[in-house]
Amino acid sequence: MSTTQSSAEQSTRSARRPGDTIFAGLATGAAFTILVALAGVAIFLTLEGWPAITASPEEIGESNIIVYVWPLLFGTLLAAALAMLMAAPLAIGVALVISHYAPRRVAGIVGGLIDLLAAVPSVVYGLWGIQFLAPKVLPFYQTLQERLGFLPFFEGPATSGRTILTAAIVLAVMALPIITSISREVFLQTPTLHQEAALALGATRWEMIRMTVFPYGRSGVISAVLLGLGRALGETMAIAMVLSATGVVTFNLISTQNPSTIAANIALKFPEASGISVNVLIFSGLVLFVVTFLVNFLGRWIAGRGQVKG
């Protein structure tokens, strides 16, 4: 039996085409190159950011580097979290309409338009946010201040549309195609037999989706949201253009006193930085690198775990 198996393995290896071997080698080399590049970026950020840890308060402008980075990290996480609260339900709903409700022709058109949103440059989103969205949402912010001003989120004063909430809306639109595309593909991979069995037992279309599609695609949807979160965390130009940042730590979403984000702060200050200021900005970039890496790694891990179970 073992002789037969070994001969079969040898014949399979010998029958392997040269193109398969070349492709496997190229794929392995590409994966190794990505790992080397990732390690190189991490080493560079660590070495260049280390002087900021040992720098004096006079050089940093704060008592220590943590005090400098914390407001930026807070603004980054707040903007990304708000964006996901808006983008995730909408993206999942759109993906569900494309995969199970809309006619095939309409679903193809809507899916293509959603995918095109991913090709729009960040600068265009920034221009849209500052020139169109900010003036349009200002009356809404003023209404929120009048009616819900007793809440810390809407204290105001709402005198400008360039707020952290507006920046989060822009981020939500930018993350929408990522979450929608992945969720749509996950929903379409639900076994047809499971769906037909649920319908045959008398379930409505929504009950069928709730009992078969959502459980099957739960891990994929979670990973899609986390990948969209990683996209929102690293956004630079759109936030730098839309947000009127002052570097404060606040949960007031409609005030002109807004926290900045790490990426936007680096983009705005790096051209004029010199000396230890460059190391401080690089250290903040290292913090963003670690946070983004952890979020994307978690998303990939959840997706891989769901595939193994499936």
Portion of residues within helices? over 70%
**SSE pattern, N- to C-terminal:** HHHHHHHHHHHH
Structural class: mainly alpha
Q: Beta fraction of the residues?
A: under 5%
Please name the CATH architecture of the largest domain: Orthogonal Bundle
CATH T-level topology of the largest domain: MetI-like fold
Q: Main sheet?
A: none
Function: Part of the binding-protein-dependent transport system for phosphate; probably responsible for the translocation of the substrate across the membrane.
Transmembrane segments: 21-45, 65-98, 110-134, 160-179, 276-299
Subcellular location: Cell membrane
Keywords: Cell membrane, Membrane, Phosphate transport, Transmembrane, Transmembrane helix, Transport
Describe it.
By secondary structure, the chain is mostly helical. It has two domains: 1-54; 65-309, MetI-like (MetI-like fold, Orthogonal Bundle). 78% of the residues lie in helices and 0% in strands. The protein has twelve helices and no strands. The protein is globular. The mean pLDDT is 84.
Provide tags for this entry:
phosphate transport, Phosphate transport system permease protein, transmembrane, 2 domains, transport, single chain, cell membrane, MetI-like fold, 310 residues, mainly alpha
Describe the protein's topology.
Layout: H1 2-14, H2 18-54, H3 57-60, H4 65-101, H5 104-117, H6 122-148, H7 164-188, H8 192-200, H9 205-233, H10 237-242, H11 262-269, H12 276-309
Helix pairs in contact: 2-12, 4-5, 4-7, 4-9, 4-12, 5-7, 6-7, 7-9, 8-9, 9-12, 11-12
